[in-house]
Amino acid sequence: MRVTDLIPWKSARGLEPAARSERDPIAALQNDVNRAFDEFLGLFEMPFSGFPASFLDNGSGIQVDIAETDKEVKVSAELPGTDDADIDVKVSDGALIISSEKKTDREIDENGYILRERGFGRVERVLPLPDGIDADAAKASFKTGVLTVTIPKVAEAQSGAKRIPVQSN
């Protein structure tokens, strides 16, 4: 290696820097520093990519799947560890509102120690609904931690396309 290969402004003249051996400790250090900067700067491109998906579920704590067909809208919501009595589902102002509240209270007094735990959690998810749904005919079921809400569409919305006759003047 020549000293002129280490001159930083040499590449500005259109000449490529000399290739470095993989065993070169300076090259290894530079690669490590470059990799560290790339990883650090990558956090700013996708700021929450390192967090689990449940952390990013709009803050509601309820993961949902929504399917819309010509006849209905079907929403499946994950509510693990929830009793059906603690779930509230309603349609209001063109939106489906799913909420759940969970309270726990546990006390153990044995072998000379007392354990008391209390917890409270409330989650809510508001989902906008398309026009032309029949909220009065909506049905909800809850099985093994999954709430399924089915909302049929009104007859006009189900037909999809409507032919408009053209009249001559």
Automatic annotation (TrEMBL):
Keywords associated with the record: Stress response
UniProt key word Metal-binding: no
Entry superkingdom: Bacteria
GO BP: response to heat
Matching SUPFAM superfamilies: HSP20-like chaperones (SSF49764)
InterPro entries membership: A-crystallin/Hsp20_dom, HSP20-like_chaperone, HSP21-like
Domain spans labelled SHSP: 53-169
Family as reported in the entry's similarity comment: Belongs to the small heat shock protein (HSP20) family.
Name of the molecule in the record: HSP20 family protein
Species per Swiss-Prot/TrEMBL record: Rhizobium leguminosarum
